[in-house]
Specification:
Strands 2-1-3-4 form a four-stranded mixed beta sheet, with helices on one face. By secondary structure, it is of the alpha+beta class.
Length: 160
């Protein structure tokens, strides 16, 4: 049984709102109007150990693979020590800022989002709703105004 709800009509975003990439990914995911967004900000709402294990499994990694120690000072033991899976779950529960990348879930698919624009790509949304064209094809451009709006029509009293 999966502990994180999955539905084709819903996207779930697991992110840290205190992280720039997380904030921008939330904005991109929020812009998708045809799916309901369930956003879980781990800075405010912690996930369970079972949920972290499920995410790691769904992303074909271990819990340590969900973390980034890039901004941890070199003298912090967490950066150099090797822990077991349960220890890494406890670490991310207490230090949500270590989540390496926001995670999007749509149906059974999961993806860690490195660049916020990947959210729309992952969900199959074209930028600005534009029709896809091959690079060598000319874009389809259609006028939003009609010619008759620019043709002067005779007014009252005109005898043309």
């Amino acid at each position: 049984m999966k502990s994180i709800a999955r539905d084709e009509n819903q996207i779930t975003l697991i992110y840290n709102s205190e992280n720039h990439v997380g904030e921008r990914t939330f904005a991109h995911a929020s812009a998708i109007k045809d799916k309901e967004l369930q956003a879980i900000d781990i800075a405010k709402t912690p996930l369970t150990g079972t949920q972290w294990a499920e995410l790691a499994d769904g992303l074909n990694t271990d819990v340590k693979g969900l973390l980034s120690f890039e901004n941890v000072s070199d003298d912090d033991e967490i950066k150099t020590a090797d822990y077991d899976e349960n220890d890494y779950i406890k670490i991310i529960e207490h230090r949500p800022e270590l989540l390496a990348h926001p995670i999007l879930i749509h149906g059974d698919a999961m993806k860690q989002i490195v660049n916020p624009t990947e959210a729309q790509e992952f969900l199959g949304v074209d930028s600005a709703g534009l029709e896809k064209k091959m690079m060598h094809e000319e874009p389809t451009i259609s006028s939003t105004t009609k010619k008759e709006h620019f043709i002067e029509k005779p007014g009252k009293g005109d005898h043309n």
